[in-house]
Amino acid sequence: MEKGAQILTALIIITLLLPTSNGEARSQIIKMSCDQQLENNITLFMPNFVGMMEQLGSKMRTSRNGTAVVGTGPDANYGLAQCYSDLSSQDCILCYAEARTVLPGCFPHNGGRIYLDGCFMRVQNYSFYQEYTGPNDTFVCKNTTRKNIEFQDTVTQAVMNAVTDASRNGEYFAREEMMVGGGNESVYVLAECWRSLSPSSCQACLENASMAISKCLPWSEGRVVNTGCFMRYSDTDFLNAVPVTSSSNNRGKIIAIVVSTVSSVTLVTVASMIVVYILKHRYIQKKRKGSYDAKKLSKMLHDSSLNFKYSTVEKATGKWDEYNKLGQGGFGTVYKGVLSDGREIAVKRLFFNNKFRAADFYNEVNMISTVEHKNLVRLLGCSCSGPESILIYEYLPNMSLDHFIFHATKGRTLNWEKRHNIIIGTAEGLVYLHENTKCRIIHRDIKAANVLLDLRFRAKIADFGLARSFQDDKSHISTAIAGTLGYMAPEYLAHGQLTEKADVYSFGVLVLEVVTGIENNKSKTTEYTDSLVAIAWNHFQQNKVEEIFDPNLMMHLYPNNSYKKEAIKAIQVGLLCTQEDPSLRPPMSTVLKMLAKDNEPLPAPSNPPFMDEDAMELNEITHRLHQYFTNDNSCSIATVEHSHFFPRRSTGGCPTPDWWVIGAILVKEKRVAEMKESTHTTLIFITLVILPLLASKSNGDARAQVIKMYCDGHFHDNDTLFIENFVRAMEITSTQMQSSHIAKVTVGNGPNKNYVLTQCYGDLSTQDCLLCYAQIRTFFPSCYPGIGGRIYLDGCFSRLQNYSFFDEYTSPNDTTVCGNTTRKGVLFQEATRREMVSVVTGALRNADYFVRRETLVSSGSNDSVYVLAECWKTLSPSSCRACLENASMSITTCLPWSEGRVLNTGCFMRYSDTNFLNTVTTTSGSSNRGRIIAIAVSVFSSVVVLAVTLAIVLYIKKRRYIQHKRKGSYDAEEMAKILNDISLNFKYSTIEKATGNWDESNKLGQGGHGTVYKGVLSDGREIAVKRLFFNNKFRATDFYHEVNIISSVEHKNLVRLLGCSCSGPESILVYEYLPNMSLDHFIFDETKGRELSWEKRFKIIIGITEGLIYLHENTKTRIIHRDIKASNILLDLRFRPKIADFGLARSFQENNSHISTAIAGTLGYMAPEYLAHGRLTEKADVYSFGVLLLEVVTGMPNNISKTTEYTDSLLSTAWKHFNEGKVVEIFDPNLMMHTHPNKKFQKEAIKVVHIGLLCTQEAPSLRPSMSAALQMLATDDEPLPAPSNPPFIDENTMELNSITQKLLINDNGDHSSSIVHVSSASFT
């Protein structure tokens, strides 16, 4: 509830910032339709489409209509665009900009058309220019006001006049304004044909339109959108008086439209970012409990023995010289440094400024500074006094263990003796952490990359960022899942309850890696072969362990077998440490004895986890994608979660734009032929490739091209305060920029304070400055929820932080961008160097810190050098000079190339052989107006590209490769068609009215994705309205999914979808209303539970079973619900059950045994094989159904069934009572079984518990199908097999912590809130 309120507040505040537009361009979209047929050849189709769009764009800038043809055959592109004749040239271009932006969304289909209130556009792969009628012809009525007979007669007459006039007019256009009777009311009519038609075709089209539009009467407004013409009538004057081309008034309107457009898209971007952030982190982040608190730990930073000055560390690393860079991880970059006293240090430079993220930064300081051991890396100090947070460690020259054991040649450096000592050292370090400190410390991320080696290859455990500590009197702690897949213990991965045995498991994996030289996450030679743990287990069972020894150990060279015996023993110890049952894993002190003593007897290991299930193995592609996204290459995307780059007009810097890099990764992982089969992948490719091509055509004087943008990688302290301060800061900045070229703003207090600096370069006019700033304002919200960022454009700059940076002029992010398209001669280089020296002095003489230069390369030459330099006006003269001097030295590194830029913390500098400078600051003339329009088109297109691309990049990052190979029966385009079905589509205003404008009294509940309201339609039908958080209409894969699944099925035990709406400001689903709410409201309530007798409960069970059988077996494609639980079972007036909430459902074809998917569902109801690795079958639903059966019989929810913190779960409780023949003891008291005269109901209830245990067996193959479960339930004398153990039955650590669940209830108001974020290769 609290998050929902914060989100609503943020949206309201941001909306208040949006400027208004008087919309003379009439760029509202009336209707858009895409053809059903897909393109024939993507290689040919794409360049033809782009070329056709470019030709149309050129024609629309000089004329208000045009046609274009590019290509031949089935991949040809025929285009037509036309503005209605009452639009001015400027308004026409703005309307066309909207059409051009939206219509590419039809890809990969081979055609489409879009009707706006001011223009029309159509694209096909055949010549359609003479068509004037077709099956898609339709009318659109606005039935808000019912008009009288006189109005209707006047409309009929005005439409007839318009048909006659347009047919005779050379422009095929007519407009009519006719008074109704003798009153003050008038009728306004517009009619226009496409100019590619013949006169007779035009007349036929308009006559058809006049008959169709009469069907809108008696309503006050109507439109006809035909294949060859457009017609509209209204009682409101929508017509433009005359096409105007002069006066500054229009310039102001253009600016207003641009700002309005940009701001609107910004709202969508911000909302999308917030939704993704909340879905990803949810409640789990709030319940993280360590042994520290931020205020207590912050005192450490004032301790002189730990505190380093930032300047000291910067000097030690050579100002972060790339030569000193040792490596990069998920949280920061590590550099080698040398202090003034000669000590070598390792400096961990955390990404961006996270000095206010105390829980993350202080944790590592606290953990490692309180311990001291020869096998733990030593923390020398830290620094957060400068612009970033820094940790200083002892320097270990041999880097980390993974650099050796996984390397084909370096592995030979580590013989068995060294490796054995490393294993012993790591074990000793863990014994110290687990047993020999005041508070037991669990590392949580033991792996080869976190074991560093000193000069003599002694092991030291590093990276305590994820470590947790707890007191001796606790058996475990509950915490958010964090670590690396492949190294995390199954009981910890399942429920987040943490003991030292989680580290023991990770250590066991590490031991196997050291002996074999095989990395666990990369051990599979094919997609479904065994993991390293399984390989080791199989070889151990067959007494063939020697076959998996690392060849680099060269065991055959040793004269005796002592080393071989030690290695075999290490394998056995590794298998003991990776046993599924945590109680069987030895503590680290016992492990150390096993390893150190030659004659120590070892027990036989039991199976590693999920030994018999192929479904439990990790997918290697996911890990490889993670490597691509973290590749340390300055010309690739370093870390998608921390940096945002945008396409540049210049081809300098890295020759391949970042979007093409991502596309290259997709192509590398999934062949182009496979991409064509996957609509999802194709959509991503087209968004990353075609849209940037369409958006990059801008030549505006505002120079609004984005050169580079940085976003801080760590998050703000408080949602409510930060958003409020941010919005206020943007509002004040906008006000200041309207009257000045610079804005310096400070809003708020403490860690959520916002400091903003925005500045336009001195040669921009006021109008150009506003347009450049509009681009900045569009992009900056995409940094949310980061605490700051900076953006450089060719005409302006802006920076946002949560600390005062106004006097900073240099930082590690200072960079140079070269445009290496043309290699210039010596004379050009010399002239450029001279100008670089002169601009430093020239800028300081100018009060604006700005200078521009234009110099001939030599006398008699036509070649010139153009230079611009500017400091931010918040700097002192000395700081400005220092910044420009640094820039002048940096920019010369771009020579001999024809263009270069320097993007420094305190200044900007650029040179070029092309004149990019504005000559004078002008305020009039049609030339500037044309440029403004061109910029408006560029700004709008670029913003749309950003919004779409940003959403896709976040989606890829979260779901990784596994989403690309999902093979369902649906795709986004196919699902989108549903919204065009008039039987499903509801108007937003209709829904809003039905719910009483979202009246709180009509609120039924709230879940992880939206709020549900009760509503009453005008015909009296009661409905349930699911109002999705924010505006999800651009998140098609999420919104359309539930529409597609539930609209494609029909069964008495499935909730019925009545329709949906995405035409308003948010996405909405409309369901049938079920008055008795959900099952959990009864079975878990002490009083309401009595309303459900056993007879009713048994019928509910049968109904749910029948619904699941239908989904699993009786639909065209098998559907898996993935979230069966009591809160998703709704009850109608007669308590008949209906399965609801299909937002997580997945479908797949009959020929697939399973699908791989990101993990989603509710802890306590998810099958163990699915929870571990995300491979999904119907048996996952069977498991959830089994849990639900036990809940219905006992009245106890599985997730909070424990009466004390560590007692058994509902599954283990039912299992024990079943084995002891005491099932009756756990019956829900509300059933009052003792009151029934016969034992029939009691026998049924015992049988249901029996079936529930059969459905929750650990092995999926032993669980019955839903049809078998129904037969068991319905047949009285059906003999039932004995159930085997439920998963993790012997381990308390495998059960959910009730305290955690209570927190979950307090946050969500729902004890079974779904989780959807346990899906990536590393958990943080």
From TrEMBL:
Principal cellular location given in the protein's record: membrane
Cellular component annotations (GO), alphabetically ordered: membrane
Protein kinase domain residues: 320-611, 998-1289
Keyword vocabulary terms for this entry: ATP-binding, Glycoprotein, Kinase, Membrane, Nucleotide-binding, Phosphoprotein, Receptor, Repeat, Serine/threonine-protein kinase, Signal, Transferase, Transmembrane, Transmembrane helix
Keyword Glycoprotein: yes
Entry's transmembrane regions: 254-279, 932-956
Protein name: Cysteine-rich receptor-like protein kinase 2
Organism: Deinandra increscens subsp. villosa
